[in-house]
Design goal:
By secondary structure, the protein is mainly beta. The chain has one domain. Helices cover about 0% and strands about 40% of the residues. The strands form two sheets. A four-stranded antiparallel sheet has the order 1-2-3-4, with no helix packed on it. It binds zinc ion. Zinc ion binds next to loops. The site of zinc ion (ZN) has 8 residues, from loops.
Length: about 100
């Protein structure tokens, strides 16, 4: 993934993704400069496929679909732009945001 310009970024997150059994077998790193176009790298919690891509997501809820097994993961809540943006090398897993499958 390209380097993030933290002077411009509106959203960045790095968190684990659960599979059907609730095991945190996947991970996603995602960021956006405008809360519309998101770039991400993901390890699918279902099939383990590592992939990266970009997706235009102007409205909630936000979903990322695995290119390999086509299972979508729901990103339930993104922080508001007024929140402090974490660097993507920090782990968000302890905060209140939750990521669940559909
Ligand atoms: Zn998959």
């Amino acid at each position: 993934m390209e380097d993030i310009d933290f002077d411009r970024v509106e959203y960045a997150s790095n968190r684990k993704l659960p599979n059907d059994d609730g095991e945190m077998t996947g991970r996603i790193k995602i960021f956006s400069y405008d809360n519309v176009n998101f770039k991400y790298t993901m390890k699918c919690p279902y099939c383990g496929e590592e992939q990266e891509g970009s997706k235009e997501m102007p409205n909630r809820p936000y979903y990322i679909k695995c290119k390999e097994c086509e299972t979508s993961s729901l990103i339930r809540k993104l922080k508001g732009s007024g929140s402090k943006v974490k660097r993507p090398d920090q782990d968000d897993d302890d905060d209140t945001d939750k990521v669940d499958k559909i």
